[in-house]
Amino acid sequence: MIKSVNDNDEAVFMSYQNENNPIFYKEQKRWIEEAIFKKGQGSSLTVDFENFEKETDTTGTVTLKVDMTTPGNGSSTNYIKYQTIRVNDKWVLNDVPFEEMKSETENITVYYNQGEEEAAKKTLKDATDIVNYYKKKFSWNPGPLSIKLYPTPGEVSATVPWVSLAGWNEGGESIEITTELTKEIFRFLTHELTHKMLGDLTNDNASIYIQEGFASYLEISVYRDENGEVQFDPNRAKEMTTLSLKKKKSVKTIEELGNIDYTDPEGSMYRDGFLLFNYLIETNGLDKFFEMIHCLSKFDYIDKRGEHKMDKTQERTVEAIEKIYGPAGDVSSNCQAFYSK
Questions:
Q1: Residues ≥6 apart with Cβ < 8 Å to 52
Q2: Is the dihedral of CA 330, 335, 338, 341 positive or negative?
Q3: Each residue of 110-149: b (16+ CB within 10 Å) or e?
Q4: C-alpha span between 226 and 135 (Å, rounded)
Q5: Nearest 5 degrees, angle CA 5-CA 9-CA 11?
Q6: pLDDT for residue 247
Q7: Which secondary-structure segment (H or E) carries 214?
């Protein structure tokens, strides 16, 4: 399996994953695709065997070391321990040896390490309340949701794989987060569950800057009030607008945003994506924004991570924007004029 990572051999790599664990199997397929993609962008990535502990004749654990270097984002060495099971005389990976906690009212499962029960309870409570609010506010009808908690950012990073991550989410995968973020888990979950919602409402056809821009918008606009109830206040986004424009007055165009990925050192898909959709919502309302979102659901599903289908989602996003708001160039110019006042 380790050799298959170095050889970019997806078929061999997948033969060492438990296909009877569908969420994990899907995430491991995305893992090897991400590894190959990142190496194609100039990163280096290697996996080494650290140790194996046999528990029974059919179960055990294996610890792997993931070394990664990405131009502009440094290097990391991250470790992850997986459960292994014996299937037809072959050892295969079967996810981290998690405990499970389920919501009684929503179809949400939190997976966590032993000893992290309090973090899991808080995560489940916040996720349940946010999902329930999003369902009512935005007419979202989500399927089963899984959230995986890891004690350290290094474990999150190793399972994606990226150099350094505190949290992660892509369509068709679990939300992954380190319990080091437990104190700010509500804010994090508003962001990541917005990704889930947009993925469902657009058939996962939203460009990266829609995903990150609107997730950043709701991250600041959705909050708990003094009674602990989830609320939405678009005026809260104005503070983020002010801060965003203090550092830099200019706003990237839709065309420019379509050429930016997560290697962008300025994080423009977050900052400029937020400013674009804050402008559209302030000037045209939330209902019209969701008309544009629903236009994207008419396109076919592409079973890849967002960065791996950027050209196609940008093309589809521009088409949806122009159908609802008019020519993309005019939208960009009007957005820039809006913030230059």
A1: 60, 61, 62, 63, 84
A2: negative
A3: bbbbeebeebbebbbebbbbbbebbeeebebebeebbbbb
A4: 22
A5: 120
A6: 80
A7: helix 208-221
Verify cis geometry, omega within 30 degrees of 0, for the bond prior to 161: yes
Strand partners, 109: 102, 146
Please name which of 178, 218, 179 lies closest in space to residue 195, comparing C-alpha atoms: 218
Task: Name 110's bridge partners.
Answer: 101, 147
Sign of CA dihedral 124, 127, 133, 139: negative
Q: In the numeric block, which tokens belong to residue 170?
A: 């892509």
Across the chain, what does the average pLDDT equal? Answer: 95
The strand ranges marked E within the chain are 44-54, 59-70, 74-87, 90-93, 99-102, 108-112, 145-150, 167-168, 175-178, 222-224, 230-232
By the 10 Å C-beta count (0-12 exposed, 13-18 middle, 19+ buried), 2 is classed as: middle
Task: Evaluate whether 86 touches 58 at the Cβ level (below 8 Å).
Answer: yes
Quick one: average pLDDT of 77-103?
Answer: 96
Compute the average pLDDT of residues 122-149: 96
Q: What number is the average pLDDT over the span 309-338?
A: 97
Per residue, what are the HEC states of 113-173? CCCCHHHHHHHHHHHHHHHHHHHHHHCCCCCCEEEEEECCHHHHHHCCCCCCCCEECCCCC
State the angle between helix axes of 208-221 and 237-247 in degrees (0 to 180), rounded to the nearest 10: 120
Question: Residue 101's pLDDT is what?
Answer: 97
pLDDT in tens, 260-318: 988 888 889 999 999 999 999 999 999 999 999 999 999 999 999 999 999 999 999 99
Q: For position 179, what pLDDT does the model report?
A: 95
Burial 61-85, CB ≥16 within 10 A → b, else e: bbebbbbbbbeeeeebebebbbbbb
Contact by Cβ (8 Å): 93, 18: yes
Looking at the DSSP assignment, which residues form a beta bridge with residue 145?
108
Answer whether residue 65 shows pLDDT above 90.
yes
The amino acid at residue 124 is: L
DSSP 8-class letter at 228: S
The model carries a pTM of 0.94
